[in-house]
Amino acid sequence: EPATMLLFGVGLCGLAFVGRKKLIRHG
């Protein structure tokens, strides 16, 4: 389902954003 793929993409982007934020805060 396209909707599910879109939601997955948004979640992945959010996860990457949070991970990057944590990485910056850590380093």
Provide mean pLDDT, rounded. Answer: 90
Strand content: under 5%
State the separation between the terminal residues, measured CA to CA: 39 Å
Shape descriptor reads: rod-shaped
Q: How many helices does DSSP assign?
A: 1
Secondary-structure-derived class: mainly alpha
Overview of this protein structure:
The protein has one helix spanning 2-26. The chain is mainly alpha-helical. It starts with a helix and ends with a helix. It has 1 helix and no strands. The mean pLDDT is 90. Helices cover 93% and strands 0% of the residues.
Main features:
27 residues
Brief characterization of the structure:
Helices cover 93% and strands 0% of the residues.
Q: Topology, pairings included?
A:
Blueprint: H1 2-26
